[in-house]
Each structure stands twice: as structure tokens, then as C-alpha cells.
Amino acid sequence: MTLTRLTSRLAAALAVLALSACAAAPSATTPGASTSAPATPQRGGTITYGRAAAVTSFDLNNQITANNAFAIDKVFEPLVSFDTTGKIVPWLAEKWDVSSDQLTYAFTLREGLQFSDGTPVTARDAKFSLERHLEVEGPLPLQAPIAGITATDDRTLTISLKSAYTPFLSELSGFSNGIFPAGFGGRSEKEFFAAPVGTGPWVVESWDPSGDTTFRANPHYWQQGKPYADTLVYKVVADDTQRIQQLQAGQLSGIENVAPATIAPLKADPNVTVSELGSWEVEQVFFNTQNAYFADRHVRRAIALSLDRDALTQAVTFGAAQTVKTLIPPTIQYAADVKALDNDPAAAKEELAASAFPQGFTATLLIASGNSVRTQEAQIIQEAVKPLGITLKIESVELNDFRERFFAYKFDAMINSGQSDAPDPDGLIAFQTDPEGFSKSYWTHYTNDRVTALAAQGRATPDGEERARIYAEIQQILADDVPYIPLYNTKNVVASLASVHGLTPRINGSVLFQDVWLAP
Fold it and tell me: Cα dist. 414→287, 308, 310, 409, 411 in Å?
């Protein structure tokens, strides 16, 4: 996702949203719902969806990358979720109440909830699931200062906080806080996650960690009458061009990650439907600050000044994305209008002259293979820094190898995306600025004590002008220090055969598929 998974045009303050939430049936504004199906949904059939990488694990508390996250959310569901604008909505919990001091949250589960094996879902299951996440921590930990979790009765879960925590509901909405049976249903963890049981619309039927995954419809799903299809197949097609070719040949029902250059041609194809939605994703250049060259702040600033972000965005996305100067996309609350280093070659040379490497150097720029957009981005960046005497050798490796490399800090610089998994800005800030967190500042190991202190303040500050000021200061410091260079905020774009209805993306990049149906 990875990372994440990490995807908002937010509504008003979460603190206000938390005061109460009425019971709500799934509607056109709930995750995965379609507003454009032209006829009565038909039942049956198989959805074959082309994806870039295989599913390697269903352990929701220990995963973060999109290949796993967007399979996990088919099986497990959280207490609350978010709609297409990032507004928190009821999900497994039909409502919640928050105490006046913002320290106690009481969630009421929907009546009649069942797991995919037909056993009832109770508050004890939710307690076990969240406590397991607290114990594991994982890449997307529950960071809220939780004092205790109590199953008050079968349908009421009460969570107490040690102190007020503004992003709490947002945090709970992420896929990593899905609910599963207490005690893993009597199995070991290994056995359970090899054949997981959840409340989601789909059940794992077969799974090859190096190949395809097949899901079958959950007969006990709480959204009555859904999913419409009988089977969902995740077919691994690593190359983006091949995914499009197989879609147009009718071998795939739909595909993810439609490259910007292919959007217009696909829209012109009468046999294909293209669906777009805003995203919580920002394309970025990341620097490993443990590398001697990129530990030098002047070097990072010089590279940022050498780039023309607007020109790069236009060249690689054909106007399908918006240039940004901060890691928080404009779809998430508190994205700030920072003063960023950009497109000033003379200033770039001055910055490099002030560095420990005034004559330049040679380093490697790591990218994942099979991604034509990132190949083009890498070439543009490579050319932009040449006048500085910096040689960036482009190293393209298979996607799984790419992830293993940056997880292990075996890179100088890389191109990747920052993806939020929840609608509050704290998710991205924590993931990309905390040197002690799971990702160690998104594997840059960037450390700034002022940013760390401000991030803590942001979590404890109610939504409003003061919280906006805190996040604006964080974003300006990051723009000055440049541990990463934000490039653009793209859209979530998926494509499907015209005979496939309701295949639309969520704002975090996933597709839930319970509303997808196939025309005869």
C-alpha cells in the first residue's frame, strides 16, 4: 500500500460525527455501492478481476500492502466504515454513542449478524479482535490510547480511552480492524488465517500465495441478497498493458490500476466501462535517509528544486491527476497550501553546492517493473537531475521484490505511493513521519522531533482551526526537509466489460464487489 493502504473530501469534524450515528441500511453512499446500474441486478456468475500482485496473507493485523489489504476487506469488516467522501458511516455497528468527555465509545452491533460459517457475531468477538490487534500492533496499529474494551452484552461493545483521541473512529474504519471469531473459532492463528472466517461478502475458496485467489459468496452476509455474483476470482496479471489486453479480449471482467494513458482509449471502447473516483493516494519519490547522499538535506532539496512537478504530472497522467506539494492529498481534510521547492534549476545548483557532494554522485532509483507510468516518471527524474551532476540509475524489479527491498532499506531512492487507509490525516502523518513506527517514516527513517511532537498534538486536538494549524506546520516542515517529494494525487480508476455492472472503486482504492452483477 502499501501501503498502504494509506485513501477524502471529509465531512465535518469526526468529533461531531462521533456524538451519535443513526442505524443505516447500506445505500448508494455506502462502500462499494453503485449509483449507475441501468437495470435490475442479475444473480450468479463469476467475476474475474485482474490484479497486479498475488494475495500472500489474510492476517489483517499484520498486513499493509494493497495486494493483501484489498483481499482482506472482502472477508473481514470493521465496526464503522466510510463513504465515497470519507464520511464515517455505520457498518457492523449500527450506531454508537460517545460520552461528553470523548473518552467512552459504546457501539451497538447490528441485530442478527453472522460469520460466514453461520455462527452469530457478538461483542465478545469484537473485543477479541481489537485486543488481538492491540497485542500484535502490526503495520497499521491501533494507536488510540485505549484503556479498556468491554463486551457489555452480546450487542454492545464499550471502548474506554485514557485521553481524547480525535482520529479514533477514522482509525477503526480501516481494514486492519475487521472483526473475526473470538479464539479464532477454536483454531490456531495459522490455521485460521489459512482459511479465514469473517463477516464480509466473500469467503476464501482457494488461495495460491504466488497466484490466483478464488472467493465464493458468503451465504450469511448481512446485506440481504448480496453479493449478486456466485464467485469472485482475483487473477494475477502483473503487467498493466496485459491487463488491458485481457480485459478487451473478454478474459477478465474488470481490472484495477488503469494507467492514465489508457483511460481515454478505454472510454472510447463501447465494450468497456471506466469508473473513476477521487483517491487518498499521493505518488512520491522517497529517499532513504540512512544513505549518505540522501541523509544530506541539501541534496534532497536540490533534487526537489530540479523537478517541474506540473510538467511531470501532465506528461505521465495526461491531465488525469492533480499536482500536489504535500503528502496529504486534497481529498483529505487539512491538506495545506505549502511553499514547496519546485522547478528552480539555479536554486537547485546552489543547494547542491552547499551539500557534502557539490560535484554530484551516482545512486540508484528503485521502481517496480510492469508499471509503465513509474518507468516514465523515473526517466523524467533521471534527466532532471543530470545538470546537477547526479546520476540516478533506474533499477526495475518485480513487485514483490520491490516491496521486500524497501522493507529492508535496500534502496537509495524509490518511487512509490502513499495511500491512506482511513479518512483522517493522522494516518498518513503517522505512517510517514514516525521514525519509531512500523514503517520508520515510510522506510525513509526521516526523524524530526518537532514533527513528532506536532503529530502527537494533532491526535489530541479537536477538529477545527487549531488542528488545521498543527497539520499545516507539519506539512511545511516536510516540504522544507524533503524526506520525500510528493508529485501528484491521482484518481482511483477501474475498468470493466460493459456487461459488468456496479464495478466502482472506493476512495481508498479497493472494490468490494458485493454490488457487482453480470448481465446475461
Answer: 7, 18, 20, 10, 7
CA 315 to chain centre: 25
The pLDDT of 270-281, averaged and rounded, is 96
- Say which residue the cell 473516483 belongs to: 277
Q: What are residue 392's DSSP bridge partners? A: 363
CA distances from 96 to 74, 79, 105, 156 (A): 24, 10, 7, 9
Are the beta carbons of 113 and 179 closer than 8 angstroms?
no
Residue 32 in this model has a pLDDT that exceeds 80:
no
Task: List Cβ neighbours of 33 (8 Å cut-off, separation of 6 or more).
Answer: 26, 27, 502, 504, 515
> What's the pLDDT tens digit per position in 220-266?
999 999 999 999 999 999 998 999 999 999 999 999 989 888 999 99
Nearest-angstrom CA–CA distance, 422 and 88 = 9
Q: Where are the alpha helices (DSSP H) in 119-272?
A: 123-136, 168-172, 189-194, 240-248, 260-267
pLDDT bracket for residue 31 (50, 70, 90): very low
Question: In the structure grid, which three cell numbers stand for residue 244, read together?
Answer: 488491458
**Cα angle 117, 118, 121; round to 5:** 100
Q: Which three cell numbers stand for residue 211?
A: 497466484
φ and ψ at residue 454, rounded to 5 degrees = -65, -40
Give the count of beta carbons closer than 10 Å to the beta carbon of residue 245: 14
Asked if residues 15 and 100 have their Cβ atoms less than 8 Å apart, the reply is no
| CA–CA dist 22, 12 (Å, integer) | 16
Distance CA 335, CA 474 (A): 11
Average pLDDT of the chain is 92
Q: What angle do CA 142, 147, 149 make, to 5 degrees?
A: 75
C-alpha cell at 473: 506546520
The rounded distance, in Å, linking the Cα atoms of 485 and 296 is 15
Strands (E), 131-252: 146-153, 156-161, 202-207, 213-217, 231-236
- Helix runs in 292-425, H state only: 297-306, 309-317, 345-353, 372-385, 399-407
Please state, in angstroms and rounded to a whole number, the distance separating the CA atoms of residues 45 and 312: 42
Largest CA distance in the chain: 69
Among residues 89, 175, 179, 173, the alpha carbon closest in space to that of 424 is found at: 173
Rounded distance between C-alpha atoms, residue 55 and residue 226, angstroms? 23
**Residue among 177, 213, 181 at smallest CA distance from 197:** 181
Q: Distance between CA atoms of 146 and 148, rounded to whole angstroms?
A: 6
Positive or negative, the Cα torsion across 164, 168, 169, 172?
Answer: negative
In DSSP terms, 107 is beta-bridged to: 96, 157
